[in-house]
Write a structure and sequence with these properties.
The structure is a homodimer. By secondary structure, the first copy, chain A, is mainly alpha-helical. The first copy, chain A, is built from 21 helices and 6 strands.
Chain lengths: 460, 460
Amino acid sequence: MNEVTEDTPSLRSENYALDAQMLERILDALEDESHEGLAELLEPLHAADIADLLEQISPGNRRALLALWPAGIDGDVLSELDEGLREEVIEYLPPEVLAEAVRELDSDDVVDLVEDLEPEQQGAILGALDEADRVAVEQALTYPEYTAGRLMQRELVMAPEHWSVGEVIDHMRATEDLPEQFYHVMLVDPRMHVVGKVALGRIMASPREMPLRQIAEEDFRTIPVTQSQEDVAYAFNQYHLISAPVVNEAGRLVGVITIDDAMAVLSEEAEEDILRLAGVGEESLSDRVLEIARGRFGWLLVNLVTAIIASLVIAQFEATIAQIVALAVLMPIVASMGGNAGTQSLTVAVRALATRDISASNLWRVVRREAVVGLINGVGFAVIMGVVAMLWFGEPMLGLVIGLAMVCTMVAAGVGGIVVPLLLERARVDPALASGPFVTTITDVVGFFAFLGLAAVILL
Amino acid sequence: MNEVTEDTPSLRSENYALDAQMLERILDALEDESHEGLAELLEPLHAADIADLLEQISPGNRRALLALWPAGIDGDVLSELDEGLREEVIEYLPPEVLAEAVRELDSDDVVDLVEDLEPEQQGAILGALDEADRVAVEQALTYPEYTAGRLMQRELVMAPEHWSVGEVIDHMRATEDLPEQFYHVMLVDPRMHVVGKVALGRIMASPREMPLRQIAEEDFRTIPVTQSQEDVAYAFNQYHLISAPVVNEAGRLVGVITIDDAMAVLSEEAEEDILRLAGVGEESLSDRVLEIARGRFGWLLVNLVTAIIASLVIAQFEATIAQIVALAVLMPIVASMGGNAGTQSLTVAVRALATRDISASNLWRVVRREAVVGLINGVGFAVIMGVVAMLWFGEPMLGLVIGLAMVCTMVAAGVGGIVVPLLLERARVDPALASGPFVTTITDVVGFFAFLGLAAVILL
């Protein structure tokens, strides 16, 4: 219980970048080994900012901070830490600090905390919990990873469907430990099936005798406990849910998901898509150099194979190139334009799939559209590049060749860019991860083959 | 007021894709011009699903649907529509339907609805509002686009700081039109400065005589009305805010932002980053082909310039290539590997900037890390590609040349991929939009120059 008259102090400057002055004072306190100075600076901060600080300072400073101020690393800070760093920090904390840290957390946060830990560390944390909490967490861990069951909290407020506003308010006042966060009261029937949910604001605005059923929200959706977290985040964003009941296969209420967790998932999933499109797996700034290099190596190796395939096409035309070296100068332009147009098209397709904007009703319109866009821009760049090549090398027919090749390549880029992700989605392969190499191979092969092939036919 | 015993019907199948069977029935009803059939199918649906339906069906079906069922397009559906389509739909609606539609919306939704409309349509909608609502919307429109002022709703519940739980509950019961959604009561002093916020759940769990100040949330942040919506979304996600008070320059409470709006912004901003990284501007699946082609043309034109710059480098080595045609076969491999490694590095940098994971405390570590990752993978691929080239062309020195070129290019890719976005961010140019062409130019130029230059020195 506290009295607040000012905003919570922040580690962040106006646009939420870590504040350089605050950072310097913290590093000074670390250098002076000033426990008090450090605690004074860090204590008022939000757990998320302390976690970011731990992620961004050097490993040496991180160890110094943990040694100087272990009590500051509470459960909230642990929840906010990058998974990679979490194990390192947990290993470093004295067992009693760790036990204290996790006991305050809601069950969903404990699940998030322990699910990726080594069995040994997992056991240590579960052992620190009360019997009831431990059972709840162990139960949640039986649901598959990345599902609603892992995301939900079991702490919730429910009421029999026939209760009135007054009854539920009295019930809440009498309940010892209400969830830290809740926004709806779930109405259940005697079989524990959810039959509606009532927003707290509606309850507070209604007279005590008002039946809860009459002020239940019109839009009402339950989340199956096995639904993927990606789908959960989609539903929250699409239907502006604030909290939603989670039900098991028998339709019984087993938990609640709140929008802040759904927002975190949405942001993670978008992040993952962005990185995967660029051929980067899960990596974070606190990872070690070797891990990062290894993580990126695989994608580059795939790319090497596609590049070699493209080179094999070029090798078919060695004789042509030997006669007209200008072809070697111009051919990367065709491939580069195709590659970029393909990336545009595939990125739009990957996003449309993620946001469920492609359905049976517009599938063919979308494919046709990409082909036409490729054709239009292909013709545009054919003219531009045809003129450039003609002026550069003083050879009108070379302009014609590169122009025709440009059209072929950009149509291939448009069609490949939409069809490849669609096929991958159907084959249940993540299109964000796998589309790039396929599309690049298509545009490279088409580009080099069209350009050098047409050159061999027309120019020789 | 309604009684609910089942989930809201959905247009969507299990994973939230539009349900093909439902779609077919809707299209059948359209074909039969069955007003009743259509209304029966669409009325139970969520506004967001109706909007998606309008976006995904063909333009002809869309017009048929609007003609057959104009009353179904309420304010919520309009809010959910893609901006591009919104003008088209608004133009099509009878004025009285439009007026009815907007009158039900909260002020933030009306602002979102009108801000991108032509002045004429904007006037028609503002004219349909009550005096008070119109003033609120016009006031919001005076704040710059993409700021908290545009995002907030003015409908909120506040209480003098000295009130008790009982007083605020009585006040809410006596208030006619409470906001549709609210999760906190904002505590204000006599100057209308916010001094804290109290979660509804805490209010309901407390006895009537409890002073509100004593149950205010510990973490308390105000949002400046001119803060960018991107920063607002960041704050909600970082600090798990559910609703936050917005204050003007004088520190007075002017509105509230709720997490569902912040979530929508977060998702839009991530979407924008993904598309910009691929050189696609704002486009939606319902845009016309020509608009889309034009939107993508600009980026491709920039890419054409960078490709021509790379070709100019190759042109310096025409004589070398004429003597050793194998160089023409292998050189795209070097450029392609450099381009991909650069994309990996720049994507990580762009995301780290967006999530504020790069600060003064780790800037140089991050740059150094990218250089070392480039070096490690460069050496790895130098060995692989050196061996491949040697076996392919039976020329050990060619293997050496491509290996050395690979190392140079991949280090350049790593360093360029991190330094370019950082410099662009400092110059206040969106790194997601502009990094790609710069980095590609760097990797292409370094790649071709190193490979062909080394070949000229070593092989000739």
